């Protein structure tokens, strides 16, 4: 598809939205507000992430379209209320991308991607024009906890507040686990467990592993193995809850072997 055709397709989306929000239009679409659409924007982002995890490019194209629809929808609502237009959204984005890439659109020199990240954060602070602004400001606290933890630790790292080696990072994980073992009250256990999770997220950051993705895949493995054990029990005419722990552990071993060999029942 050529750039001109891309623009025509986007114009068609804008026209479709105008009709949905117009008269007679669609009753549901006409009722929506920025606030009422929040859950749908979040759901569409998660569905796109799932498509990426599954490496399903056909589905990803569809989910990215749904996200684009949400962006255009908010733009349409804002235009109707005199807040801003979709054209302004795109213009702001274009200006931001140029401003934050002076090594591409200006004469700034960078040696690697790390320097690009450092410059990016410095430019963001300049944009907000606040001398008292923290490096951690601007990271949405509404983010999932693991993603937020990874983001603020990454920001802190840009200032040089970081470990020197991965060995130090992993030693910190072991230290936090020891402190969790020694916690005596529920409040202490909660705090120490949080510290363990925080340290684990940082170890993932050092290993270039996204904590959210790693945990999501671990969840998927557990779900796959557990449901396999249940199917085995149904085939063998036994009740999984009634089995002794040793029998369940044996089934778990079978599930792991099945998973490795990718067998189907």
Short structural description:
It contains twelve helices and no strands. By secondary structure, it is mainly alpha-helical.
What is the typical, i.e. mean, pLDDT? 91
Beta strand %: under 5%
- Tally of DSSP β-strands: 0
Strand-pairing-aware structural class: mainly alpha
Main sheet overview: none
Order of helix and strand elements from N to C terminus: HHHHHHHHHHHH
The tally of structural domains comes to 3
CATH topology of the largest domain, by name, is Helix Hairpins
Low-confidence segments, given as residue ranges, are: none
CATH class bucket of the largest domain = Mainly Alpha
Could you name the CATH homologous superfamily of the largest domain? MazG-like
Q: In which range does the helix fraction lie? A: over 70%
Radius of gyration: 25 Å
Number of helices: 12
Overall form:
extended
- Ends distance: 44 Å
CATH architecture type of the largest domain: Orthogonal Bundle
């Amino acid at each position: 598809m050529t750039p001109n055709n891309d623009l025509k397709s986007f114009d068609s989306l804008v026209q479709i939205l105008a009709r949905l929000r117009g008269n007679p239009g669609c009753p549901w679409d006409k009722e929506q507000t920025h606030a009422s659409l929040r859950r749908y924007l979040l759901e569409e982002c998660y569905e796109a992430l799932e498509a990426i995890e599954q490496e399903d490019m056909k589905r990803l194209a569809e989910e990215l379209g749904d996200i684009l629809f949400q962006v255009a929808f908010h733009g349409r609502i804002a235009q109707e209320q005199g807040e801003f237009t979709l054209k302004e959204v795109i213009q702001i984005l274009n200006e931001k991308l140029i401003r934050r890439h002076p090594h591409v659109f200006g004469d700034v020199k960078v040696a690697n991607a790390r320097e690009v990240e450092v410059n990016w954060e410095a430019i963001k602070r300049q944009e907000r024009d606040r001398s008292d602004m923290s490096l951690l400001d601007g990271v949405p606290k509404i983010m999932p906890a693991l993603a937020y933890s990874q983001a603020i630790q990454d920001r802190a790292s840009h200032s040089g507040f970081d470990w020197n080696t991965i060995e130090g990072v992993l030693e910190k994980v072991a230290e936090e686990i020891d402190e969790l073992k020694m916690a005596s009250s529920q409040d202490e256990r909660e705090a120490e467990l949080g510290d363990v999770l925080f340290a684990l997220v940082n170890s993932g950051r050092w290993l270039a592993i996204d904590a959210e993705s790693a945990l999501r895949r671990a969840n998927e493995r557990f779900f796959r193995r557990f449901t396999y054990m249940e199917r085995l029990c149904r085939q063998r005419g036994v009740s999984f809850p009634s089995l002794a722990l040793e029998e369940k552990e044996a089934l778990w071993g079978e599930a792991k072997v099945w998973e490795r060999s990718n067998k189907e029942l």
